[in-house]
Amino acid sequence: MTRPMSCTARTDDRDWLIEADEPLAGLQRRSGGDLPGLITAPALLELVRKSRLYGLRLARTFRAQDDHEQVTAWAEVEPGANGGCTLALSNWQTDPLPELDGADDDERRTAIARHLAELSARLGPNQELLSVDSEAADLADALARMQAGLGLPWTQFVELEGNVHEQPLHWRLLDGARLRLEGSERHWKANLVPLGVPNAGSAGFELYLVADEAVAKPQSVAEPDRPVISTAIGREIAPVLRQPIARIIANAETIRTQLAGPLADEYSDYAADISSAGEHLLALIDDLTDLEVVEDEHFTTAPDRIDLADVARRAAGILGVRAQERGIRLDAPKAGESAPAIAEFRRVLQVMLNLVGNAIRYSPQGSIVWLRVEQDGDRARLVVADQGEGLSEEQQTRIFGKFERLGRSGDGGSGLGLYISRRLAQAMDGELSVESAPGQGARFILELPSFEDRRSEPR
Amino acid sequence: MNEPPTEPQAHDAAQSLPQDQGDPAIAAAAPVLRHLLVNDDRPLFSDEIVSRVRSMIAHVAAQLLFAQAEAAGVADSAAHIDTHQDELAAALCADDALLLHVHARAVEGQVTEQLQRRSGIDPVLTPLVHDFVASEDAETASRAMSLLAAQTRFIQHYRRMELPLRELPGELFHTALLVFRSYGEADENSDEVEHRLRQGYDEATGRLALLTRLAMAAEGKSALRVDHAGVALFVSALAQAVDQPRDLTVLALTEGELPRLVARLRAAGLSPDELQAQLLHLHPDGEFLQPAEHSSR
Fold it and tell me: What's the confidence (pLDDT) of residue A457?
């Protein structure tokens, strides 16, 4: 019974078997799998999954069994570049399944039949129908006929495959018989469980009809959904991208500042372009990483006690130089002011840097950006007001959308900043809103729970 | 707002406790010491095994740190290893599966040495390996040669109390890298180091893989005779025959675990006579020779 064989196979990033030689292909099909389709042998699936996730070449024996034999094989799995794996199987050995104890085996088969049956009936000692029940849609007609014909042998309502001379046959011959039912496209198998002691069948039978195929599902042809966007940007791609981009920027800066010797100004300007494009790319990666974080349903923030005035002053300090370059004055809260709030310091600062950064970017030269804190009962507010062009009603509704640029381009924004900021605010039980009118500047308001809020309001 | 009133409570507790239990470290000393004293003669936790386990884990830590130092271009890698080795080793010890594997490795080496002394079973070149080397199947023959080399290295590493990273099973290799990642502050090199280590790993060339494959190729029960196959192949074949992890099967070879070993050998299909013959090698002075004792188990 042992036929040493070897074969190769390929899987993809969902652990689907894409290509497989015999005998693996045969095992896959006999175990009810498709090709291509998810690996059916549990041990092999586990091995492939580990290899793919760990990025390690693994080699193990694996065991599997189908309906009539047990398989042992040596599997070597190598993760590939495309997210899938290549498999090399050798020493493929098959052995017949171990003999089961006769009684146990019968019991098990009966249990399976009871579980899977789509039509069940109780028969009398002469195999006449006593009662019958089914919920399968394609058996509705047959069920109606049977229910109308209670008392008749059940074999009259089915079409037995193969040569059948006289009816009803002895139950042992009918147990396991293949048959067709009018109105159903499917192939059926009969299971008869005799009742009564000492003579099996003296008290009648249980009849179970089990179909070979499941009811065809209309959507079964389509492949299962795959996530449209991979959620691996922050975790896997970002760290890999950052390093080369940082190198590009550093080298471009070296060229721009002509550290290695004088250059024509044009080249130095090109280098400046490369460097700023690199900076943009880095910022975009940061935004995409943040986007992934805030969109994760498990995203939470730490409920620290912070002072919004302090956050505003720090944001003004961080962005002070950039504001100066554009001739803009940042008017931060005075040293004595404070507005206690419950939120994660880092995240509030991130929102502030985004709001103030936007204000600096879109305000006219020589204008002022005000940072104000307010406390109103159980809510604390931080307001960033600028003297820019302002926003129309319609723009105000759109501005917090994902990738929303309000028609701007080429200024280094990703259109994610405000979207992320609002998600952050909401994750901290707060809200980020805007008040504005065209020509009158804009006021972005970050509202967060104040100290008393969380204590009085159960969450 | 609601400062947990920890301080006063702790204070009260300390006052209400007898003086000798005030310090948790000292309070815990007695049970630990008692355990060590009582289990002194238990081969599973003998001083030798404990120090071997400690050294092997330290060696795993050292290899990870060396790879890091190399990638970062640290001039004095020995100093780098010295600084971090103990802490990283402690972190590695926290993983049960890794600890179990290292423990099993130490026990396997010890049993191999014992059997060489007692029954003259060669740690490397056993009759079964000999047969494999002379096999007509070129693949089996070359695999047996690889095993010879791998097993020689294993003994060498055992004596030096070392554990090369690439000899770890895939999961544990992965675990070690995860522990390493969470331990070290991630610098720009760490991803690269990890990537390189993963790239270099190939479970199929490891000793355990070779043992499993040859155990599969062994005819009949020939690998289930420790005197014929040697400890390493014997354990692999036994683990495979009863579908149990190899590490646990190794631990079943120790003295206190005799019932487990007997159960495994029986489950693998050995007759009582064949079983007795194996136990004569593994536990020459075991109580199993007395039938009454045996049946009472």
Answer: 43
Residue B258: domain span: 44-189+211-296
pLDDT digits (tens, 9 = 90+) for A184-205: 888 898 888 888 777 878 888 8
Q: Is the pLDDT of residue A253 over 90?
A: no
CB contact under 8 A, B212 and A74: yes
Class of domain A7-96: alpha beta
Counting residues of chain A whose pLDDT is more than 90, the rounded percentage is 4
Q: Does B171 touch chain A (CB under 8 A)?
A: yes
pLDDT at A47: 92
Phi, psi of B210 (to 5 degrees): -60, -40
Q: Does some domain include residue B31?
A: no
Beta bridge partners of A446: A382, A432
Q: How confident is the model over A247-270, as a mean pLDDT?
A: 84
Q: Which chain B residues are Cβ-neighbours of A51 within 8 angstroms?
A: 170
> How many angstroms separate the CA of residue B52 from the nearest CA in chain A?
27
Checking DSSP bridges between strand A305-307 and strand A205-211, what pairing results, if any?
Answer: unpaired
Higher-pLDDT residue of B172, A323:
B172
Residue B231 within any structural domain of the chain: yes
> Between A and B, how many residue pairs show a Cβ–Cβ distance under 8 A?
52
**Nearest neighbour of A54 by CB, restricted to B170, B191, B202:** B170
Residues 197-226 of B with CB under 8 A from A: 198-199, 201-204, 206, 209, 212-213, 216-217
- Report the predicted TM-score, pTM, of the whole model to 2 decimal places: 0.52
Q: ipTM of this predicted complex? A: 0.72
B161 lies in some domain: yes
| Residue A250 sits at the chain B interface (C-beta within 8 Å) | no
- CATH code for residues A102-211: 3.30.450
Q: What is the pLDDT of residue B286?
A: 65
Burial letters for A258-294: b for 16+ Cβ neighbours within 10 Å, e otherwise? eeeeebeeeeeeebeebbeebbbbbebbbbbbbbbbb
Structural domain spans, chain A? 7-96, 102-211, 233-294, 305-456
Q: What's the CATH code, domain A305-456? A: 3.30.565.10
DSSP for B112-172? HHHHHHHH---SS--HHHHHHHT-SSHHHHHHHHHHHHHHHHHHHHHHHT---GGGS-HHH
Decide whether A102-211 matches A305-456 in CATH topology.
no
**pLDDT for A455:** 43
At residue B172, the pLDDT reads: 94
